[in-house]
Design a protein that fits this description.
Layout lengths: L1 H18 L10 E5 L2 E5 L6 E4 L1 H9 L6 E5 L10 H5 L3 E2 L5 H6 L4 E4 L17 H5 L4 E4 L22 H15 L2 H21 L7 E5 L7 E5 L5 H7 L3 E2 L9 E5 H7 L3 E6 L11 H9 L7 H4 L3 E5 L9 H12 L6
Parallel strand pairs: 3-4, 3-6, 4-5, 6-7, 8-10, 8-12, 12-13
Antiparallel strand pairs: 1-2, 9-11
Helix pairs in contact: 6-7, 7-12
Length: 338
């Protein structure tokens, strides 16, 4: 009988040990997965660093502006509704070094693009996400830009992941991590309502082709937004088609002038970047350069004066989705989207 009792106690202890959290886990932690990496916090992060426009605007949209210990590298002016909050945030014109970042003692780094977590040594990199996690700093990359592995760039982004659904998923997951679930759902509902209104307005309209072009000719060629760029989603939502959606090797693709002429897009958006004070007017020199180039004289966009000053920030994945869909919907279908 004693032997049976000893075995029973041993079995009970084994079962209890199996149910207890491991030494690496906290019983009250919230954990979500981002780009294949578990992001776990014991409570809402209190010292957040936001890098790049999408991350900065999302932080303001979620109402965590007062938790920002730093922001860096805006591509343009923030949306008007975030201007007051951003004016109070510490701002770095360029990305800080890893050492500068760590001197701010962040407990969370939110990035709108994946290159900031490059594993390759660089002044523009904070190091891999694992290297920061080892220091107790949790990190996040916007899901439409997940790299193939921690520390890699965007050369192999799957176009299938580039969607507003992934933006909504990020909002919900970050809402959980930051303890602002209700605010996240409000932001999602607003985005969905506004995008749906544009979709309904352009439902039966022709679908013009659109090229997003980085300003300036480079060595006889030019850089356009390919399939993995979020502009592909936004153009589709606004009632158009990315003229270069089939180029899926990377977000920004170098093409020849001859290829651009062959595609003959209906609209050309000149994507201006990168300064915190930038407005679309800054892209006017790029517009004039396209219009004045004899090689482009017969393009549909040139003949119709549909070469438009625009912003790089407008085709980044994030809470600009509704604004850009409305803005672009009006450009492509001015009679339908006011």
């Amino acid at each position: 009988m004693a032997v049976v009792r000893v075995l029973a106690v041993a079995l009970s202890l084994t079962l209890l040990a199996g149910c207890a959290p491991s030494a690496a886990e906290s019983p009250g932690a919230t954990t979500v997965k981002n780009c294949g990496i578990d992001v776990s916090v014991d409570g809402p992060p209190k010292r957040v660093f936001a890098a790049y426009q999408p991350a900065i605007e999302l932080a303001h949209a979620l109402g965590i502006s007062d938790r920002l210990v730093g922001t860096a590298y805006l591509d343009s002016q923030v949306l008007p509704e975030y201007a007051a909050a951003q004016s109070k945030a510490k701002y770095f014109k360029n990305l800080p070094s890893r050492e500068e970042l760590l001197s701010l003692h962040p407990d969370f780094v939110l990035s709108g693009f994946n290159d900031v977590f490059s594993a390759v040594g660089s002044d523009a990199s904070f190091g891999s996400r694992k290297s920061l996690a080892d220091l107790g700093v949790q990190t996040w990359i916007f899901s439409p830009l997940c790299p193939t592995a921690d520390g890699n760039g965007d050369e192999a982004i799957d176009p299938a992941t580039v969607s507003m659904d992934n933006v909504y998923a990020d909002l919900r997951d970050l809402g959980r991590l930051f303890g602002v679930e209700d605010r996240a759902e409000q932001v999602i509902a607003d985005q969905q309502k506004r995008i749906a209104a544009v979709a309904a307005a352009v439902k039966d309209a022709p679908r013009p082709t659109v090229a997003i072009v980085r300003p300036g000719l480079e060595g006889g060629g030019m850089t356009v937004s390919g399939g993995p760029d979020f502009g592909t989603v936004l153009i589709r939502q606004a009632g158009g088609v990315n003229a270069f959606a089939d180029l899926t090797s990377k977000r920004n693709v170098k093409i020849s002038v001859e290829e651009f002429i062959k595609r003959d897009p209906d609209y050309v958006l000149i994507s201006g970047c990168c300064d915190a004070s930038l407005t679309p007017a800054a892209s006017q020199p790029g517009v004039r350069k396209i219009l004045a180039n004899p090689a482009f004289a017969n393009l549909k966009a040139v003949r119709s004066q549909h070469v438009v000053p625009w912003l790089f920030a407008n085709h980044s994945a994030g809470v600009r989705g509704a604004y850009t869909t409305e803005n672009l919907g009006h450009i492509l279908h001015p009679d339908l989207v006011k």
